[in-house]
Structure formats: C-alpha cells, structure tokens
Amino acid sequence: MTATRDKVLDKAEAAIRMRGYHAVSFRDLADELGIKSASVHYHFRQKEDLGLALVERYSKRFFDALEVEATKALTSKDKLRAFCAVYRHILVSSDRLCLCGMLGAEAAGIPVSLNDAVAAFFEANIDWLASAFGGDDTARTKATYTVGTLQGSMMLASSMKDVALFDHVLEALLA
Amino acid sequence: MTATRDKVLDKAEAAIRMRGYHAVSFRDLADELGIKSASVHYHFRQKEDLGLALVERYSKRFFDALEVEATKALTSKDKLRAFCAVYRHILVSSDRLCLCGMLGAEAAGIPVSLNDAVAAFFEANIDWLASAFGGDDTARTKATYTVGTLQGSMMLASSMKDVALFDHVLEALLA
DNA sequence: GTCTATAATTTGATAGAC
DNA sequence: GTCTATCAAATTATAGAC
C-alpha cells in the first residue's frame, strides 16, 4: 500500500545508523528516493515522528529476530549465543551501527520521547538477557555488561573500520 | 594568554559530548561564551579544525591522566584498575559520554580527518591495555573487549540515565 | 582579537494546487 | 499522495572596520 512510507523508513534508518540523527535531513531522504521533502513530511509530520517510527520498527524486528534465533536455545549459553548472533547480523548485514546505539550516544541531543524509546529498547535487551542468565541481580549485571560490550565493540569496529574486531570480541564473550 | 580559545574548547567539548558533533554550532558556543560566532571562527577556521583540536587535547589529557593513575600499578590487574579509573572519571566528573565515544558513533558522518584522529585514540587505548595484558594476540583481544565494554556501558548509562549501571559493569570487569 | 555585516546554503515545516 | 512554492530560522563561513 503505502510503499513510500516504508522506503522513507529504510533510507532514514540506513542514513541515521551511518551518520547520526542530526546529520540526516528530510531533503537528503527525499533526494535519495527521487521525491520531494514535502512528501516525506506527509508521512512523518515532524522529524521526531520519523525517529519514533524508526525505533519502533527496529525494536520489533530485533525481538522478532531474537525469538526466531532463540527458539531452540535451552541453556543460558545457547541463549547468549542467539543474542550475539542477532547483534552480529545488525552489524554485518549492513556494515552499520545499531540504530539505538547511535541514538543512545546522541541521547541528550535528541527529542526526549525518542530517547525514552531508545532507553526502553536497551531495558528490554537487558531484561531478556537477564532472564536468560537466571533473573537475579548477578544475572542483570551480566546482561548489562553483555549489551554494553556488544554496543561498544560495534562502535569501535565502525570507527576503526575493522569488522573482525567485533568478531574477536564476540568470541571472547562466548568463551 | 589566549583564554578565549580554551574557553571555546571547553564549551565545545561539553556540548559535543552531550549532544553530538552535528548538534553543536559555532553560534551555540559563541552565545554561551557571550561572544560572536565570528570570534570562534577566528580561533578555529572550520568546524573540522575545532574538532581536531578537541580530540588532540582530549587524547593528551586522557593519556596524561592514565600515566598518573598507573604510576604505582605493577600487575596487569592494577593497570586495568587504573585504566578503568580514568574511564570512570570521564563519565562521573561531567556526567557526559567520552568525546571519542560520541565521535566514534558518528564516524561516517564527520570529516575523515576527524574520525582518523578518533580511531587513533582507540588504537592507542587498545595498545596500552594490550601491553598491560602481556602483548600477545589474546591480550589484544582482551584489550579491545575491555575498551568496548567501557565505551558501550558509558553509552548505556547515558541513555538510560543510570550512572550506577556503569559502576556495576566496572565491578564485573574488575572481578 | 573581537566586532558588524552579510553571503550562500541548508533545515524543519506548512499552504494549497493537482 | 505528491507536487510547487514558500517561510522563518539556523548553519558554516568570510570580508573588513575597530
């Protein structure tokens, strides 16, 4: 139906994951799609609306992929492996940062509602892993630690242009 | 002498560490300092020059602080503790992200020369820790892992507005 | 070193025709 | 749903007076 809306979301996600929220404009997106910026505004009245739709879609996709990946995961280790596999796919499939990792860094510079959505994504990440690890306080710390390591290594791999760096960290994380 | 130049650097570092490179303008900085943007341009011809000066100063300060902190560190564990202490100070002293963590996330959206400087900072981070860990391949992976964990946890603490989160990860990292 | 003034471009956003 | 046209504001940056 509204194919344009999805195309805008695709381009916006790719652009923001590469350059950041403030480095992407409605005109950039419109030009890339061969439409006008007014048309982008038709689908997303404000930039904030676009950002929120982006995080919502991203989060949904992430947890859907996680569910698929973890169906046969019984042990804590298997669940961790599944979690890491989804993160790895984020980076490798597009050679881009996690959307929420980027927006999380820019936290104090984006609309409050948008960072709330980003923080909720991280909260859900940690909840999932903490549950996989047993659910107690130690499990929660381990979960936070794991998400932090994945996000930070992704950032390092992006800045240092070395995807292998991320894989080495993944190996260590699973050892 | 050139007190203004330093004041510009101070304001720019604080602003960029909070909101990101593209969310900070020369006028913002000038207004905060009660001067005009043309005066900022006198000290830093282009925004890229300001960014480069920022990373240079930041990196120097970081490794100076690390040297002080690690003077009495003999064991690997002590050196890791010193490294973590400097990172903790970055976050806690200002409640802001690491400058290079922010710019590293925005890697593909900032001038190439600027990201080169950021990547060099991370390289030096990893070199220092790898050396502290013994210098072999395993040590290097452990070093990368550690820097990634610190950077990622800082981002999480910032987005989720929970500095204690960072401290819990630190504890786990040192255990 | 700092200012006024200004250029050239980009940005987020809207009104209204088709 | 998409367009043309337009706006007000912001952005990087420069020229030249003081």
Structure overview:
- Two copies of one chain form a homodimer.
- The model of chain A has no long low-confidence stretch (mean pLDDT 97).
- In chain A, helix 1 packs across helix 6.
- Chain A contains nine helices and no strands.
- The first copy, chain A, has 175 residues and is mostly helical.
- The first copy, chain A, has a single domain, classed as Tetracycline Repressor, domain 2.
- The first copy, chain A, is elongated and about 50 Å long.
- The interface between A and B is large, with 46 and 46 residues.
- Chain A binds a DNA duplex (18 and 18 nucleotides) through helix 3.
Summarize the SSE layout with pairings.
The structure is a homodimer of 175-residue chains.
Chain A: H1 3-19, H2 26-33, H3 37-43, H4 47-69, H5 76-94, H6 99-105, H7 112-132, H8 137-159, H9 163-174
Chain A binds a DNA duplex (18 and 18 nucleotides) through residues 2, 4, 25-27, 35-39, 41-43, 45-47.
Summarize the structure.
The first copy, chain A, has 175 residues and is mostly helical.
